[in-house]
């Protein structure tokens, strides 16, 4: 069966499955009782198609206008009045009668020939279009604004957008502010803002006064943000809306009831029940004639309501998890104070601070920033990043910051944005179905086809005697009511066999188990974004983990520093002030200038007047060190002007800035990986503050200090500066050589408590843990040894060396790699790819940075950090580790194994019931001409094995023993030999019991009365149910003997067992007329229970039969 399933249903992977693979398995599901229920938790491919269409529409929108040169960024000049270079005609005299200017005709000629204008006479007789380009400076334009006046009856219009050039080249439009907007204290409406930003409409932006004008009209400040008094916030929300997307409504319980009623077999049974009611009442009157029909109806309703309750609870769990997935916080300035805010609380007028890896939370305009590159692929499908700056200031919600940083003015929120419309469609697309869901749909299809075949044969065998008698009597066309009811009963039994035989609950058990696990994992600080990750993590054979923040605490402090060649302990304010007193003033000044300016962090004051450090833990550690040295962040930043920034990324492993100094001139500052920055230095500062050439001896000494710091498990950073030559343009790249070394700092980041034990747990579970870090190799090795990752036979390698290896060398090297230091994102991606393809490992990868996205995408399970991780990394990940703790990753692996094994247990249990129910009714029909289990009874059995069985077995919590077995890996079979052994063994026992009771039951129980048949059938039914009850307990462990361990603490399991037994008792003793049963004696009850209980020692004996593991 496994190879058949793999061939036909094996095309769907744990992630990134093709649409064809998703469609193919759906086509192969030929026997489906209830499509609405079966395919509820699968991807809605039609909705996804709609989302792709929206992306395509965004991608093919008209191209943006040419960028405005920096010298022409005045709000007075519309960008669309510019013409590409080379298209302007030669300078000439201005057309007659245009204007009279209070300056030279030459400049007037430049302006007239380089502005695209239409002369519209008030008489409306003629129009003349002049296509030209504006290449005059801002100062000249301002001068013109003060001196140019039109002559005669002339007005100047921009012909295609309704822009008027009024006297003095000012711009105005026909836009009228709605009264309700004015009344609320604003000067621009939401639709106009949306048209400007979403349409990239530079002309309208200029009309409204540029970013400054928009801020003014939104009653906000570009520096202090909006005011947060309740009335102001309420007015903003009323006018501009809130930053939330339309989501599909929570479906009510009755919707799930209606969907459960869509089951084809239940509908057929309902029709049978209706006919039975009509014929029965006509024959035997009310209420006796209605018992059979009402029994079927009651059973159908019970199945429907139990099913609907289970499905409804699942939907609520998924809804809660969806809310957690969408919780994103951003840095916002309000009332002049920086604060973290949920994206759902953003309003137009807010000033948002964006950095590399952030998601743009709303539509807005660029205020200020450096080297900003935006990835718009999530919105347009276009992977090429877009540069955003003063000339192209438009930022769209849902896009990602690929590089750089900026401040942004929020203009449009929620469903007014293109992202809002896209998200509303995407949210209906759903998650991809998981490989297990697809495989179990295959199992359900195969067994359903077999069940359908047996049901048809059973109906033929049961009915052939009736038809034969009618044929011999020559009465084939004449049927009495009793004969019709008998035929209907045979048909109902056949349909009910299909109900039992098609294990509709198999694929849904996966969803139930995953929903339960995801909810519990949320409590354990792991947020599962994709269903498949939960089950795939149970098969993981390798974890490639980051060091910083995952294996370590991410609480960093500078504890050692080598400034001017001298090593000092600086772990404390007293040591820092002592260091400050020992160093020359010029060194301290340069050091503080470097730390405070060349940083991605900030020192801000909160509403309590206390300073707060914002930024990554590394940046925070450096800023804390600088403050301890007596530095003042704001004062130091105000002394110079930052003119260029090249942010840190894991490829360059350094960050650089260029400062404009107070006395003129430019200075570059650089910091980053110690050996890389030191290699870029050719000078150093000595203890007097003097600058000297960096000779070989000093270089070796500094490299030795780096190694000694790294050997103490310290993260090392080197700080350097360089005076820039005259003539350097900020359009050029910041130089990579020629720096002067200021010093080296050693940052302590302690290993997290419990990591060593977690790594040992992974090792015992057959999971290899590898550390992949951008840190110095000696630091990485020291931390890896402390964590128990690096062993005697393991290898630590640096990224540059790994890159140089040939394929045959890599194949030999990769299995031994336990530490990779100074790695680039490409190195991590390559390692993951080789592990997955060449060695068939199931790989889990952790990541927190934007550049980790390719490796997270390539891995079988991407694990993003919830605290340190960027939004780009989180979006590429399958699971978000909310506390950034490696121990949580081990918990995820444990839950993954629990899900996988729970579903195996349920499959084993359900297939056993399927096999026995089929064989009992089919064999009985063939040999005795009747079926011992009626339609009502089979419906009850179906509920025990389907919904209730899934609840009991698919929601077992994990135990520590799960991490003592080898992982399933990529090639492991789902239905193993162990499962087949248990299924066939228990099926044989149960079938033997049922067959013995059917043939020898009357003698065994001494039944001699007229109602012996119904008593015997009741005993068979009761024994069959108790066989399933005790088999459910035996199924808790597939190989272990002790199946009772932890059972009493599993409240769901105990509740299911208890309710099953209680309802079985009620059905047998009190619902005889409806359930075709009769009350049993104590002796008969005891026999039924003991026959079921005997299955447990039989199950133990079966488990002792040796079989192969696969």
Automatic annotation (TrEMBL):
- Coiled coil start-end: none
Which keywords does this chain's UniProt record carry? ATP-binding, Calcium, Calcium transport, Calmodulin-binding, Ion transport, Magnesium, Membrane, Metal-binding, Nucleotide-binding, Phosphoprotein, Translocase, Transmembrane, Transmembrane helix, Transport
- Is ATP-binding included in the keywords of this UniProt record? yes
Give all residue intervals belonging to the Cation-transporting P-type ATPase N-terminal domain: 207-281
The similarity annotation says: Belongs to the cation transport ATPase (P-type) (TC 3.A.3) family. Type IIB subfamily.
- State the name under which the record lists this protein: Calcium-transporting ATPase
A GO cellular component annotated for this chain's UniProt record is:
plasma membrane
- Keyword Metal-binding belongs to the record: yes
Looking up NCBIfam families in the UniProt record yields: ATPase-IIB_Ca (TIGR01517), ATPase_P-type (TIGR01494)
Q: What does this protein do?
A: This magnesium-dependent enzyme catalyzes the hydrolysis of ATP coupled with the translocation of calcium from the cytosol out of the cell, into the endoplasmic reticulum, or into organelles. Catalyzes the hydrolysis of ATP coupled with the transport of calcium.
Q: Which reaction does it catalyse?
A: Ca(2+)(in) + ATP + H2O = Ca(2+)(out) + ADP + phosphate + H(+)
Q: What class of enzyme is it?
A: translocase
Q: Name one GO molecular function term.
A: metal ion binding
EC number(s) given by UniProt: 7.2.2.10
Topology relative to the membrane: Multi-pass membrane protein
Primary subcellular site in the record, as a coarse category? membrane
User: TM segments?
Assistant: 266-283, 289-309, 446-467, 487-517, 974-994, 1014-1031, 1051-1072, 1084-1105
In terms of SUPFAM superfamilies, this protein maps to: Calcium ATPase, transduction domain A, Calcium ATPase, transmembrane domain M, HAD-like, Metal cation-transporting ATPase, ATP-binding domain N
Q: Give the subcellular location.
A: Membrane
One of this protein's Pfam families, by short name? Answer: Cation_ATPase_N
Q: Which domain of life is it from?
A: Eukaryota
């Amino acid at each position: 069966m496994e190879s058949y399933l793999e061939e036909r249903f094996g095309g769907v992977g744990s992630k990134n499955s093709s649409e064809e693979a998703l469609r193919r398995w759906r086509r192969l599901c030929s026997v489906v009782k209830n499509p609405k229920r079966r395919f509820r938790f699968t991807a809605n491919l039609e909705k996804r198609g709609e989302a792709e269409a929206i992306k395509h529409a965004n991608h093919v929108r008209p191209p943006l206008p040419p960028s405005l040169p920096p010298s022409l960024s005045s709000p007075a000049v519309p960008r669309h009045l510019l013409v590409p270079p080379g298209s302007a005609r030669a300078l000439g005299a201005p057309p007659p009668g245009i204007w009279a200017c209070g300056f030279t005709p030459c400049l007037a000629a430049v302006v007239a020939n380089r502005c695209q204008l239409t002369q519209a006479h008030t008489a409306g007789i003629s129009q003349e279009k002049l296509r030209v380009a504006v290449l005059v400076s801002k100062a000249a334009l301002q001068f013109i604004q003060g001196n140019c006046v039109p002559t005669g009856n002339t007005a100047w219009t921009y012909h295609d957008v309704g822009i008027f050039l009024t006297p003095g080249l000012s711009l105005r439009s026909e836009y009228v502010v709605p009264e309700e907007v004015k009344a609320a204290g604003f000067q621009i409406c939401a639709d106009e803002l949306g048209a400007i930003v979403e349409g990239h409409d530079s002309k309208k932006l200029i009309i409204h006064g540029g970013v400054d004008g928009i801020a003014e009209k939104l009653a906000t400040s570009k520096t202090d943000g909006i005011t947060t008094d309740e009335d102001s916030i309420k007015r903003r929300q009323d006018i501009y809306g809130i930053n939330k997307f339309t989501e599909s409504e929570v479906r009510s319980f009755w919707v799930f009831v209606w969907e459960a009623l869509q089951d084809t077999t239940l509908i057929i049974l309902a029709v049978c029940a209706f006919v039975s009611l009509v014929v029965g009442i006509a024959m035997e009157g009310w209420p006796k004639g209605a018992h059979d029909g009402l029994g079927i109806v009651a059973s159908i309703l019970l199945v429907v309501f139990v099913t609907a309750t289970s499905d409804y609870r699942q939907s609520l769990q998924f809804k809660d998890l969806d809310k957690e997935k969408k919780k994103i916080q951003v840095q916002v300035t309000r009332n002049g104070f920086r604060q973290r805010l949920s994206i759902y609380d953003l309003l137009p007028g807010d000033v948002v601070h964006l950095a590399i890896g952030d998601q743009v939370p709303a539509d807005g305009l660029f205020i200020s920033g450096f080297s900003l590159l935006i990835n718009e692929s999530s919105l347009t499908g276009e992977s090429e990043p877009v540069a955003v700056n003063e000339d192209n200031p438009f930022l769209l919600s849902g896009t990602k910051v690929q590089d750089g940083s900026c401040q942004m003015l929020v203009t449009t929120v929620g469903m007014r944005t293109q992202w809002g419309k896209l998200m509303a469609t995407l949210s209906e697309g759903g998650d991809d179905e998981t490989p297990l869901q697809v495989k179990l749909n295959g199992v359900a299809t195969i067994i359903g086809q077999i069940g359908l075949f047996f049901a048809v044969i059973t109906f033929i065998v049961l009915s052939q005697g009736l038809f034969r008698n009618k044929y011999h009597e020559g009465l084939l066309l004449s049927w009495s009511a009793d004969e019709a009811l008998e035929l209907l009963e045979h048909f109902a039994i056949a349909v009910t066999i299909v109900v039992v035989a098609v294990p509709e609950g198999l694929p849904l058990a996966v969803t139930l188990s995953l929903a339960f696990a995801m909810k519990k994992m949320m409590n354990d600080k792991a947020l599962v974004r994709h269903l498949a990750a939960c089950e795939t993590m149970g098969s993981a054979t390798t974890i490639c983990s980051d060091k910083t923040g995952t294996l370590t605490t991410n609480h960093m402090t500078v504890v050692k520093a080598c400034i001017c060649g001298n090593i000092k302990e600086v772990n404390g304010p007293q040591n820092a002030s002592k260091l400050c007193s020992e160093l020359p003033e010029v060194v301290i000044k340069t050091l503080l200038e470097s730390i405070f300016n060349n940083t991605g962090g900030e020192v801000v004051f909160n509403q309590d007047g206390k300073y707060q450090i914002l930024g990554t833990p590394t940046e925070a550690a450096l800023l804390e060190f600088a403050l301890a040295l007596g530095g003042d962040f704001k004062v130091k930043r105000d002394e110079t002007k930052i003119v260029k920034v090249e942010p840190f990324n894991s490829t360059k492993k350094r960050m650089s800035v260029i400062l404009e100094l107070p006395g003129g001139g430019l200075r570059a500052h650089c910091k980053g990986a110690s050996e890389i920055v030191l290699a870029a230095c050719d000078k150093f500062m000595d203890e007097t503050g003097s600058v000297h050439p960096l000779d070989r001896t000093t270089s070796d000494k500094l490299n030795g200090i780096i190694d000694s710091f790294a050997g103490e498990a310290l993260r090392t950073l080197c700080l350097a500066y360089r005076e820039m030559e005259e003539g350097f343009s900020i359009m050029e790249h910041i130089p990579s050589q020629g720096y002067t070394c200021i010093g080296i700092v050693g940052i302590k980041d302690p290993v997290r408590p419990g990591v060593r034990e977690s790594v040992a747990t992974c090792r015992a579970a057959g999971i290899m843990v590898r550390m992949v870090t951008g840190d110095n190799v000696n630091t990485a090795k020291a931390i890896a040894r402390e964590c128990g990752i690096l062993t005697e036979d393991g290898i630590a390698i640096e990224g540059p060396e790994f890159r140089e290896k040939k394929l045959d060398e890599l194949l030999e090297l990769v299995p031994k790699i336990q530490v990779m230091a100074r790695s680039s994102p490409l190195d991590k991606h390559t390692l993951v790819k080789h592990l997955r393809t060449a060695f068939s490992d199931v790989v889990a990868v952790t990541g927190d940075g934007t550049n980790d996205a390719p490796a997270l995408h390539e891995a079988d399970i991407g694990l993003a950090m919830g605290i340190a991780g960027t939004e780009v990394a989180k979006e590429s990940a399958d699971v978000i580790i909310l506390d950034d703790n490696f121990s949580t990753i081990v918990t995820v692996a444990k839950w993954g194994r629990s899900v996988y094994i729970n579903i195996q247990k349920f499959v084993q249990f359900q297939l056993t019931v399927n096999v026995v129910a089929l064989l009992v009714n089919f064999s009985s029909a063939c040999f005795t001409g009747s079926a011992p289990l009626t339609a009502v009874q089979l419906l009850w059995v179906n509920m025990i094995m389907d919904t209730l069985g899934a609840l009991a077995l698919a929601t077992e919590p994990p135990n520590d023993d799960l991490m003592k077995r080898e992982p399933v890996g990529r090639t492991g079979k789902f239905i193993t030999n162990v499962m087949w052994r248990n299924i066939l063994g228990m099926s044989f026992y149960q079938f033997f019991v049922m067959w013995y009771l059917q043939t020898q039951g009357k003698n065994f129980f001494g039944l001699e009365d007229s109602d012996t048949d119904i008593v015997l059938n009741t005993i068979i039914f009761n024994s069959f149910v108790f066989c399933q009850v005790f088999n459910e307990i035996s199924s808790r462990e597939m190989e272990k003997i002790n199946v009772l361990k932890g059972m009493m603490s599993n409240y769901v399991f105990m509740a299911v067992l208890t309710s099953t037994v209680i309802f079985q008792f009620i059905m047998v003793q009190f619902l005889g007329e409806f359930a075709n049963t009769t009350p049993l004696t104590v002796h008969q009850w005891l026999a039924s229970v003991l026959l079921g209980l005997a299955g447990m020692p039989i199950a133990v004996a079966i488990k002792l039969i040796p079989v192969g593991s696969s």
